[in-house]
Specification:
Layout (H helix, E strand, L loop, with lengths): L19 H6 L4 H7 L3 H11 L11 H5 L10 E6 L8 H8 L1 H15 L3 E6 L4 H16 L15 E6 L9 H8 L23 E5 H13 L1 H5 L2 E2 L2 E2 L1 E8 L5 E6 L4 H8 L9 E5 L8 E2 L24 E6 L4 H15 L5 H18 L5 H11 L13 H15 L1 H10 L9 H8 L24 H5 L1
Parallel strand pairs: 1-2, 1-4, 2-3, 7-11
Antiparallel strand pairs: 5-6, 7-8, 9-10, 9-11
């Protein structure tokens, strides 16, 4: 790691690094000229050989994804996922604000490789500065001949359009993004057909993440071998890691894939704040689950994080939780977020995320029961695309924090339930019988007394009963 040379962030601290003049002075667009002087299939082969995996969360091989496009297609579209809606993730924002031409060059090369003449850069609405910077950078690139008609005399044409989303977490899912781009409700499509066959506007479409495409110019410039010399087996290349939460310095740092959470905290984030210790850490956005204090030395790559039971690397946005923060509070925030962001299309996700939130909310109000923990685990294991009950992976992302938090910190949950009891918040006897599937006798149900027809009542006991 001592000899590691940052490439994705090399212009971050350079004055005016977001401008075309500075980008070109530092070798910008030379990789694009090299790529457009070759053959599209050769570019795809180079990216495949590098084994670049998508940096947006799923980690799917990028070059392989490009080969799914139909050979006989007449038109191809490229969608760039700049929604970056995973909590605590901000690496894409920095790439767009500090080095937009690196992204534009990556889009240009990738569009040439996939024969896409139109690219839609889908950016979340809250990224106001990033959107403005990108618009100016695209105008600069077009005026300089890096975009438009017959780029570099190659016969290849490309236009990039910035499309601002409406701030929905679900639009980070590729088909949800496409639906939103088309002006429809942002929720996932049933697959197949996959976007490569029928995507945006029913045309073959490639969807890639911002950081993924920023890697492409460096692969073309330096070669697949260089890229594979960085990182760990099956997780190659550099990665931008975000570190936030209970640390002294919140940072975004570029390192080889496979760095540990402990190294990020101690060597780059200034340690845990206020002299405290780390109780846990989120390894890559809250949908990936939770690492305990004993698991902070697990490499942060696509493969290793499965061993401690996490969903994956995700966006590599690490959030540190100190030893004075309640895991119950952490899970409450996670459940509240996913209940709000579920698009509601799939019943298991719509109902499951809502029940997670209602249960943990009742627990915090003093109405928790020990059996709630097993019920939540049962629900978490039976909703999501992995068990095959939903269209997209949002439900899996909602389930993993529940699985990890309760499994790894069960004693803390049980102690919280026992010490935070409020009889007014406990379920009623009728609710208990319904939950247990016991058929009740209607004669035993006490209903509120309603006023007689035509009789006006004043707020009082009858109204309170209602």
């Amino acid at each position: 790691m001592a000899n590691f040379e940052p490439v994705l962030s090399r212009n971050f601290s350079v004055p005016e690094g977001h401008t075309l003049k500075v980008y070109e002075s530092r070798g910008g667009y030379q990789a694009a000229r090299k790529a457009l002087a070759s053959d599209p299939d050769a570019v795809i082969t180079t990216v495949k050989d590098s084994e670049l995996r998508g940096r947006g969360g799923a980690g799917f091989p990028t070059g392989l994804k490009w080969t799914f496009l139909p050979k006989d297609r007449k038109e191809t579209l490229m969608c760039i996922n700049a929604d970056e809606s995973e909590p605590a993730t901000f690496n894409n924002r920095l790439l767009m604000e500090k080095d937009p031409h690196q992204l534009i060059e990556g889009i240009l090369i990738s569009c040439f490789a996939t024969r896409a003449a139109t690219a839609y850069l889908y950016i979340r609405f809250e990224y106001i500065d990033a959107a403005a910077i990108l618009e100016r950078a695209i105008a600069e690139a077009r005026a300089a001949g890096h975009l438009g008609k017959n780029i570099y005399g190659s016969g290849f044409d490309l236009e990039i359009y910035v499309h601002r989303g409406a701030g929905a977490y679900i639009c980070g899912e590729e088909t949800g993004l496409i639906e939103s781009l088309e002006g429809k409700r942002g929720w996932p499509r049933i697959k197949p057909p996959f976007p490569a066959i029928e995507g945006a506007f029913r045309k073959p479409t490639v969807v890639n993440n911002v950081e993924t495409l920023c890697c492409v110019p460096h692969i073309i410039e330096r070669g697949a071998g260089w890229f594979k010399s960085i990182g760990t087996p099956k997780s190659y290349g550099p990665k931008l890691y975000c570190v936030s939460g209970a640390v002294n310095k919140q940072v975004c740092v570029e390192l080889p894939l496979g760095v540990t959470t402990r190294a990020l905290i101690e060597e780059h984030a200034g340690g845990v704040w206020k002299g405290r210790k780390a109780k846990a850490a989120v390894p890559g956005g809250i949908s990936m689950g939770l690492l305990s204090a004993d698991e902070l030395d697990v490499p942060l790559d696509f493969e290793s994080l499965r061993l401690p039971g996490c969903l994956g690397l995700g966006t590599a946005a690490v959030t540190v939780i100190d030893d004075q923060t309640s895991i119950v509070d952490y899970l409450y925030n996670c459940c509240r977020f996913f209940a709000h962001e579920s698009c509601g299309q799939c019943t298991p996700c719509r109902e499951g995320t809502s029940w997670f939130y209602k249960t943990i909310k009742r627990m915090k109000a003093g109405g928790g029961r020990l059996q709630d923990l097993d019920v939540m685990l049962h629900m978490a294991n039976n909703l999501g695309i992995i068990p095959g009950t939903t269209i997209c992976g949002l439900a899996d992302g909602a389930a993993w924090p529940v699985k990890n938090a309760i499994t790894k910190y069960r004693a803390e949950f049980e102690d919280y339930i026992k010490t935070h009891q409020n009889s007014a918040a406990l379920p009623t006897a009728l609710q208990e019988r319904i939950a247990e599937g016991v058929r009740g006798d209607v004669d035993t149900i006490v209903l509120p007394v309603l006023p007689a027809a035509g009789v006006r009542h004043s707020p009082g006991k009858a109204a309170d009963a209602l």
